[in-house]
Write a structure and sequence with these properties.
Blueprint (H helix, E strand, L loop, with lengths): L2 E6 L5 E2 L16 E5 L1 H7 L2 H4 L31 E3 L1 H7 L3 E6 L9 H15 L3 E5 L3 H13 L2 E7 L4 H10 L2 E5 L7 H13 L2 E2 L15 H10 L7 E5 L4 H15 L8 E7 L4 H7 L29 H10 L3 E5 L1 H15 L5 H15 L8 E6 L11 H4 L4 E2 L3 H12 L5
Parallel strand pairs: 5-13, 6-7, 6-9, 7-8, 8-14, 10-11, 10-13, 11-12
Antiparallel strand pairs: 1-2, 1-3, 4-5
């Protein structure tokens, strides 16, 4: 085990992994940042050792927090292709454009990396029930890995979540609840916190303050990119951004390899958000203190529902990633996202959901703004598959109940729909 300790990003409290921490006991919504013993890692593994291992996420196990291989819960996540996008590059006037195709993961998005680590830690800790707040992809990933580990999953999704994502959850055996979203505050997070804090469920959303382990999974995206580029670091990496967790995780992967001396520089990290919900990029534009990001003032309005976090839960770390790498933020319209979806599919054969295509929309906008040199090596993360809303599965999967963000209504519907009685 190479974890030294965990440190709350708000109050600074230190935890050992043996304490099995998930959230700071001070309830200050500080993320428990995991700190590694880099000297021990350097002594345990060398870059040439990686070539002898299978090309999947757990190839980088020394940089992940799971203390023993027997706890790993895997569906073969990671090891996704880095596609040299020749036709798209020609259209955009670029020489070296690459697409990191995260749609190849088991449930169709990068969230599988997050939940493989998270569920592995839940298994190590001995949890039997997990809960998630998600627009769909994180919940689907948690449900899949929960099913494999024998952990019961409860998922709170927005009432406007696509049925394809809900059907996926139901097939995995998750208990799914649609929650009405009428105010700026995310009601799915409110319900998740209730089950975690009052009833002892393992919280596993894809953002840091409620689970410090899942954010470690996306580190491996950066590590794979470096290997796939022949141990070279790209000049810019475009990241679709909601809670800023993916952005933070990918940055941390480059950080880890800089800290062990395997690389000696960082790419410019670029955060891409939709016009209808961009609190993180707004914060970057205003150059605010990372600990003083304002939430979006109204419910999100965008086709990129995976980027609908009205408060960027990992925005503090995400802003530091931008500041540390001379990175920047880009805001794109729904129309620009749709155009990016068409370009990915028609020129490179990649069918991405709106959130998954937002990174390309951001690159096109950045080119127009003069932020990208035509000779640079650019990587765009394509984060989620487009086949998420097949209406045909509704008949065989059934439907999920819709509730207000109210615990009593949740308990009634849980009993009515899923025969679960908490009394």
């Amino acid at each position: 085990m190479f974890v030294k300790d965990l440190r709350c990003s708000k109050c600074g409290r230190i935890y050992s992994l043996e304490e099995k921490p998930v959230m700071c006991i001070n309830k200050d919504l500080g993320r428990l940042d995991i700190r590694y013993d880099y000297e021990a890692i350097k002594n345990a593994v060398k870059p040439e050792d990686l070539a002898k291992r299978e090309f999947h996420m757990w190839r980088y196990r020394e940089f992940l927090p799971v203390p023993n291989g027997k706890y790993i819960v895997s569906l073969g996540e990671g090891g996704t292709p880095l596609i040299k996008a020749g036709r798209l590059a020609e259209k955009l006037g670029l020489k070296k454009l690459y697409l990191k195709d995260e749609t190849r993961n088991p449930t169709g998005s990068f969230k599988d990396r997050c939940m493989s680590v998270s569920v592995s830690m839940a298994k190590y800790f001995g949890f039997k029930r997990a809960v998630v707040a998600s627009s769909g992809n994180a919940a689907a990933a948690l449900a899949a890995y929960g099913a494999r580990a024998g952990i019961e999953v409860y998922a709170f999704v927005p009432d406007f979540a696509g049925y394809g994502k809900i059907a996926q959850l139901l097939f995995y055996g998750a208990k799914v609840f649609r929650v009405k979203w009428v105010e700026a505050e995310d009601p799915t997070v409110k319900m998740m916190r209730l089950l975690a804090e009052k009833y002892g469920f393992y919280p596993s959303p894809s953002f840091g303050p409620f689970n410090p382990y899942q954010i470690e999974g996306p580190k491996t995206i950066a590590m794979e990119i470096v290997e796939q580029l022949g141990w070279n670091v790209p000049d810019q990496v475009f990241v679709p951004t909601g809670a800023a967790s993916l952005l933070t995780g990918v940055y941390n992967g480059f950080r880890d390899w800089n800290n062990v001396g395997w690389i000696n520089k960082y790419p410019r990290m670029v955060a891409v958000q939709p016009e209808g919900n961009h609190p993180f990029v707004r914060a970057w534009m205003e150059k605010v203190d990372p600990d003083k990001i304002r939430p979006w003032e109204k419910p999100p309005k965008t086709i990129a529902t995976g980027l609908e976090d009205t408060f960027p839960w990992d925005g503090d770390a995400g802003l530091r990633a931008l500041y540390n790498t001379n990175g920047y933020g880009v805001v794109v319209s729904d129309e620009e996202i749709l155009e990016a979806m068409k370009l990915l599919a028609s020129l490179e054969g990649l069918f991405a959901e709106p959130s998954g295509a937002a990174g390309l929309a951001g690159l096109i906008k950045a080119l127009e703004d003069g932020e990208v040199d035509r000779d640079e090596t650019v990587v765009v993360l394509v984060t989620g598959h487009g086949l998420k809303d097949p209406d045909i599965v509704k008949k065989s999967a059934g439907d999920a109940p819709t509730i207000n963000p109210d615990p009593q209504e949740f308990f009634v519907k849980a009993k009515e729909f899923y025969k679960v009685d908490f009394n």
